[in-house]
Design brief:
This protein is an alpha+beta fold. It has helices spanning 26-29, 64-70; strands at 21-25, 37-40, 46-49, 59-63, 84-87, 96-98. The model has no long low-confidence stretch (mean pLDDT 95).
Length: 99
């Protein structure tokens, strides 16, 4: 399904396609919980988690472009290598990058 984003394709900071799937939680997406863990899988998929739930019913899959549009600060992690993770205790802390 095709849809538009409000940012210019020139502003796209990631190496993946804009329509790449992102796994997240409804708590992150509705901004009731912060993103504290990011995984860039070997297959190129991304996961942005709050680490407050492991219930599959709390998960959701969204378009990377839509996620970036809602959370432009994720551009800070655009260079996260495949297979690596980024963690932080809270939004005031810097990202800790791990392989």
């Amino acid at each position: 399904m095709s849809h538009d984003h409000t940012f210019s394709e020139n502003d796209w900071p990631f190496d993946c396609a804009i329509n790449t799937c992102v796994v997240t939680t409804k708590f992150v997406y509705d901004k009731s919980e912060p993103i504290v863990q990011v995984t860039h899988y070997e297959d190129g998929e991304w996961q942005f988690m709050c680490n407050t739930t492991d219930d599959p019913d709390d998960g959701m899959v969204v378009c990377m472009g839509c996620f970036f549009q809602k959370f432009p600060e994720i551009a800070d992690l655009a260079s996260l290598p495949l297979g690596w993770d980024a963690y932080r205790e809270n939004v005031t802390q810097p990202w800790d990058i791990e392989n």
